[in-house]
Amino acid sequence: MPLSPGDSPGFLLWHATLRWQRDIAAALAPLDLTHVQFVLLACTWWLNTQGEHPNQLALARQAGTDVKMTSQVLRNLEHKGLVEREVDPADARAKRLRVTDTGAELAPRAIAAVERADARFFQPVPLDDAVALLGPLAHPET
Asked: Is the C-alpha dihedral spanning 78, 80, 83, 89 positive or negative?
């Protein structure tokens, strides 16, 4: 017998995801970033702060995004003056990514805005419970 929508984990996850995406989009709108632009900017910034200058493929792996889509979004971030692509000295075909000074100023502000939105969204659930549920769903292989 089929589950009612209120008893279906997938249906509930769908609605929770839609609500969360709206909250994140609203938090990022004043910063003129889409959600995927934020993820790629934040991942590039974080990797740069760790001394890494990833290429597009490494960034896509870190962010969990499609490589072609990553390229398109990086063009937008580059156009906004938030990210630069530099020729990789080890491989002239590859471009290494570096957050600009403007991007380095914006990334922590955007991360803080997203963390505030996440805190509000997940407030009804203890953090440990949310991580315990979502971790295995996000990374079933680990």
From this structure: positive
Q: Which residues contact 81 (CB under 8 A, 6 or more apart)?
A: 100, 102, 103
26-53 per-position pLDDT tens digit: 999 999 999 999 999 999 999 999 999 9
Find, among 118, 71, 116, the residue nearest to 97 by Cα.
Answer: 71
Residue identified by tokens 């499609």 is 66
Radius of gyration of the chain (CA): 17
Give the 3-state secondary structure of residue 11.
Answer: helix
pLDDT greater than 70 at residue 1? no
**pLDDT tens, position by position, 66-97:** 999 999 999 999 999 999 999 888 888 888 99
**How many Cβ atoms are within 10 Å of 67's Cβ, its own excluded?**
11
Element (H, E) at 113: helix 101-122
Residues 54 and 44: their CA atoms lie apart, in Å, by 7
Q: How far is CA 130 from the centre of its chain?
A: 18
Predicted model pTM: 0.90
DSSP letters along 15-31, please?
HHHHHHHHHHHHHHGGG
